[in-house]
Amino acid sequence: MSHLIEINGLKKTFPVYGKTGKIFSQKEYMCAVDNLSFYIEEGETYGLVGESGCGKSTTGRAIVGLTKADGGSILYKGKDLCKLNDKQFRPLRKEIQMVFQNALSALNPRRRIGDILGEILEIHGMKDADERREQVIETLKKVGLSEEHYFRFPHELSGGQVQRLGIASALIIGPRLIVCDEPVSALDVSIQAQILNMLIELQKELRISMLFISHDIGVIRFISDRIGVMYLGTLTEEASTETLFANPLHPYTKMLFDAVPDPYITNREFHALTGEQPVRTQAFQGCAFYNRCPYASDRCKIETPEFKEVESGHKVACHMVS
């Protein structure tokens, strides 16, 4: 398999101001994403997991062009998406789509579902109204909705149906890559399973690739072929799903697994992460996990660990792992 998209050294910063506000405070920059590198292959689901605030969504938004990266590259079909302006990026929006966490907020509440999806097709060149209607109904059926939903408004749908509609709006123009940003986090467990199974079936049928972003390690395990564990704007570990769960190497990965409830294990002790993620400024040095790691040494505070391959396809950024 070839790489569909390759992210190299991606960086994104946001300004941080002191108590005196924007005018009098000295401007400092927070690194939301710092030197992040990974790739997604054709037909693959890459899972990006980590705590809230680690930079997962910022990464996804940078890939689809909703956030402009400050450094690094995002290579898609030989083009660096970071160097494209809005006009140059526009033709690629048909191939790179996003499913948002709150799909309802991305839909026009005053328009019927058929009009919302039909407008997407019209923008991308489908001028025939009957052809658009046929394509919309076909896509609705693919995501588990019916022709009846064509005439409904978004607020008339349940939470699961709204998320299906969000997926339909991404699929309707035939993308090659879909970035799913926490698409099932607000749904009941039973509905989550339905949506995840539907995504897996659609991926096989349509041969699309996915970047699946979530803080839920169980969801990531179910849907992903490979997983990148993200912390404080950078990857701490990356491996195939089977390898990562069989042999987690980074202390952060192990602590994430320890915090997940398992109904098949009784009398289990949970080891919750203590402390909070620090703000990663441009002056930050050392291991990202230093202040929360039980095995941290003075070296970890000063020297940033190299994100290196320790086994075939298994990468870790930790001084304790060789």
From TrEMBL:
This is ABC transporter ATP-binding protein. Residues 5-257 form the ABC transporter domain. One of its GO terms (molecular function) is ATP binding. The keyword ATP-binding applies. Belongs to the ABC transporter superfamily. Pfam families: ABC_tran, oligo_HPY. Coiled coil: none annotated. Keywords: ATP-binding, Nucleotide-binding, Transport. InterPro entries: AAA+_ATPase (IPR003593), ABC_transp_ATP-bind (IPR050319), ABC_transporter-like_ATP-bd (IPR003439), Oligopep_ABC_C (IPR013563), P-loop_NTPase (IPR027417). Gene3D superfamilies: P-loop containing nucleotide triphosphate hydrolases.
